[in-house]
Amino acid sequence: MSLKISKVLITGGAGFIGSHLVDRLMVDGKNVTVLDNLSNGSLKNLERWVGNERFKFIKGDLKKLRNAEKAVKGNELVFHLAANPEVRLGETDPSVHFQENLAATFNLLEAVRKNASAKAFVFASTSTVYGEASVLPTPENYGPSIPISTYGASKLGCEALAFSYAYTFGLRTLILRIANVVGSRTTHGVIIDFIKKLKADSRKLEILGDGTQKKSYLYIEDCVNAILHVTSQFLDGRKKADVYNVGSADQVEVKRIAETVAEEMGLRGVEFIFTGGVEGGRGWLGDVKIMHLSIEKLLKTGWKPKVGSEEAVRFAVQTLLKEYEKV
């Protein structure tokens, strides 16, 4: 579904999800501005668009208001994907999530508020805002949301700020709570971790936790399709603010992911060594052990994922192995 808007800003557009969103919007003929500090993203992800008159890249940090103001100027729609995505970092340096996620989002919202051309704000949130939900699959109206990581807390805080700007300043706001997304260009997460470990030692694989952690995984193409689909419908509607879960209809265990990586690498007899983890087998403090988003609300809009969690993982492993070989 194509957006009825021509000028778009994507923060974090050099990153994993962001760069795939850039690709789609550029192919659709949009004018795309990317703001990224390149702390997690890479210009390599955007190299096909460098030199295109419809593409503009700004290297800048959202923690500086002037960078946000420069990027927002003239754009009609803002996709805010910039964030520090490392959940485990909260154990050692929680200030990073506060500065990179919450403070940066405040600056961006301020810049959008002052920019008369901006019509809407789309925020890429996360399933971790729900914490250890007692209702599975977890719907958007579940509450109270009690995050168990500083990452989840910072994202929930960003949501609250964005909603407040919708109702105080009239900035139309769409929140997308996204499950674990996998596919090409990803630089962190369980699949990358397993591939690196097995490249170093193909006989054994250390797995954080007890291996029964179970979550939903969404393939990158399905994720981008969902983002554009629901954003288009939101812009055509009249709501000031709305929120959608974006994920798959099923789950897959960490142990099965390990088996899939080994299978795709052509390895047999790999010894799985489970660390046991913390607090009942989770991988680390703040890790939500069981996650399954309800996507009923999104399905009712006419979107549905093309592949389930296990197939998404397998496709991602195949793609990442090819990319790993090129490095």
Description of the structure:
This protein has 327 residues and is α/β, with parallel strands linked by helices. It has two domains: 7-181 and 219-246, Rossmann fold; 183-215 and 250-291 and 306-326, UDP-galactose 4-epimerase, domain 1 (Alpha-Beta Complex), CATH 3.90.25.10. It is built from nine helices and 13 strands. The strands form four sheets. A seven-stranded parallel β-sheet has the order 3-2-1-4-5-6-11, with helices on both faces. Strands 7-10 form a two-stranded parallel sheet. α1 (16-27) links the parallel β1 (7-11) and β2 (31-36). α3 packs parallel to α4. The radius of gyration is 19 Å and the shape is globular. The model has no long low-confidence stretch (mean pLDDT 95).
Which key phrases capture this entry?
7-stranded parallel beta sheet; alpha/beta; Rossmann fold; single chain; globular; UDP-galactose 4-epimerase, domain 1; 18% strand; 327 residues
Précis, in short:
This protein is α/β, with parallel strands linked by helices and 327 residues long. It is 37% helix and 18% strand.
